[in-house]
Amino acid sequence: MSIKLSVIIPTYNPDADILGQTLQALKVQSLPSSEWELIIIDNNSTPAVKVDLQWHPHATIVKEPNQGLTYARIKGFEEAKGDVVVMVDDDNILAADYLQHALQLLENRPALGAAGGKSLPEFKAEPPVWIKDFYGNLALRDLGNEAVTGKWEGCYPGFAPIGAGMIIRKTALKNYIRHINEGARLISDRQGQSLGSGGDNDMVLNILKDGWEIGYFPQLVLHHIIPANRLEYRYLARLNKDSFKSWIKVLHIHGINPWKKTSRWSVPLRKLKLWFTQRAYVGKANFIKWQGYCGMAEALADL
């Protein structure tokens, strides 16, 4: 039987226990393993990633020495044999019917290029009361129980899929992969100390602008493991700042940035003003939000 679907898991120095949970969820998928392959992309881990994949007839570990999530994903796309690609992070726990739904959705909807669903939290420590304000930063989302689809309308859709669990028709990735390989631009996710995350957005915009539909489908459900260190406010502040910087860059590249370029000399003054307007001194949540706006100020000056 031919491979219909490819699961791609990019990973860099993974937590062995959490990656084990991700793989365990894949072991119990309702879609027969003969119909899908598993590709783990070892993105320069030290030591190299070693996991038992004997349970799967079409599983492999591929190395990608170029550091960065975008490079790892591109390597996975190029290795994939399936017509459908499912992007899985190394801390995602897919529902047992996830792959089956993914395949059915793209087989039944020929205009659909990419889609996502619910990414629900599995916290490993008690989260702060304000954490929901930053669910988007943590790749968490629940848009309800109604499906939503749409095409390119000159802006970024609020229902656009996030990277965690995104399902993609491989043919819809053709131009995106070409842009990256030609060096035309690179919106790099998670590279070095950067926590930027614009690669997902760049991918979605390329798919939309190529004429494909995208969608949100509530039957696609995964749980995202959030360890204690990712709930620490200084981490979230840095995450929010880098995410805003990536977001502005993506919007600018795609010609849909609504904000004007600012002067580099004005950045410190803008940050000081934002300190007060965002009341960053009041509490941790306000401080995190302020850092996001600081990232925006820096990005607009760098355009």
Which short descriptors sum up this protein?
303 residues, alpha/beta, Spore Coat Polysaccharide Biosynthesis Protein SpsA, Chain A, 2 domains, nine-stranded mixed sheet, 8 helices, 35% helix, 19% strand
In whole angstroms, how far apart are the ends?
Answer: 50 Å
Q: Cα-atom Rg, whole angstroms?
A: 19 Å
Characterize the biggest β-sheet.
9 strands, mixed
The ordered H/E elements are: EHEEHEEHEEEHHEHHH
Which overall shape is indicated by the principal axes computed on the Cα atoms?
globular
Proportion in β-strands: 15-25%
Task: Compute the number of helices.
Answer: 8
- Structural class per helix/strand content? alpha/beta
**Number of discrete domains:** 2
- Output the CATH class name of the largest domain: Alpha Beta
Query: CATH topology of the largest domain, what is it called?
Result: Spore Coat Polysaccharide Biosynthesis Protein SpsA, Chain A
Assigned CATH architecture of the largest domain? Alpha-Beta Complex
Kindly report the average pLDDT value.
94
Please name the fourth-level CATH homologous superfamily of the largest domain.
Spore Coat Polysaccharide Biosynthesis Protein SpsA, Chain A
Helical percentage: 25-40%
- Give the strand tally: 9
